[in-house]
Amino acid sequence: MAKGRHTPPRISSKLMRKILISALMALGLAACATAATEQKQELVGEIHIKGNEPFPIVMLETEAHANWELVGVPLDQARSLTGREVTVLGTVIRAPGPGVWLPSVRVKQMSESKR
Prior knowledge:
By secondary structure, the chain is an alpha+beta fold. Helices cover 26% and strands 36% of the residues. It has 2 helices and 5 strands.
């Protein structure tokens, strides 16, 4: 071996396996923790349908002019409520924030507002 050359220590395959298993377990726990924190949301606003066939998007515009995609709303039901104010209860799929073009909520319940 030449002077001044340094060879890094070798990691045994058992140690590498333990590190890999630990990392995978940590990732799995983090994924479970994220999935368990479903955020419920109640929104009030006006129903609109954006886009056209074959990809229409049912949207809700709040009084603050925030737009939300409504997932799980049948298109015929959305058409009958277009331009009307509704109250939506659902689970946030994509929360508003940096880099989010259109927040979305999976609708559990929707009713026409009484105003």
